[in-house]
Amino acid sequence: MKTEIQTDRLVLREITFADKDELFELHTDPDVQKHTGEPVVESLEEIEQSITGRLHDYKTYGFGRLAVIEKGTNAFIGWAGLAYLPEFDKIDIGYRLKKKYWGKGYATEASIAIINYAFNVLQLEQIIAIAMPENKASIKVMEKIGMTYDKHAPYDAVIQNAVWYKLSKIDYLNQ
């Protein structure tokens, strides 16, 4: 069964190879990549490898990052979803949107739907989110969706001072 989550304005669905040009556009924007710790993508081959990884995640874990489609226009506006981080044995929620869709509440709307799906359908116990401290917009989304500050800690060799947030199923159900 393919994952599809709907909100008032969005459809969240599994990423496919048909999304590669849109993903390439997203990941070649230096402003989009600025606070991710990842370099700007340079080739469609990199995107195809990323999609292969997404397909693996859906099959292996039953969840992954999802394409975010605006209902009114059917436009691909970015991605949002869950990812298993084996190096921490944690499940992360993340989002990345094309710049022209920033500030419209889409990251928050998608994230709320994903959290609901994670706790009520997948029966996960906890979700984390990680951001660079200067990424105030992402941190604001984390707080809006009910996550609480956990710690400042390294994420990888590039991001040594990440801000970690968390949300447990118990806290989510008691909100």
From TrEMBL:
Its EC number is 2.3.-.-. It holds the Pfam family Acetyltransf_3. SUPFAM superfamilies: Acyl-CoA N-acyltransferases (Nat). Residues 10-170 form the N-acetyltransferase domain. InterPro entries: Acyl_CoA_acyltransferase, GNAT_dom, N-acetyltransferase. It is an enzyme of class 2 (transferase). One of its GO terms (molecular function) is acyltransferase activity. Keywords: Acyltransferase, Transferase. PANTHER family: GNAT FAMILY, PUTATIVE (AFU_ORTHOLOGUE AFUA_3G00765)-RELATED-RELATED, N-ACETYLTRANSFERASE DOMAIN-CONTAINING PROTEIN. This is GNAT family N-acetyltransferase. It comes from Geojedonia litorea.
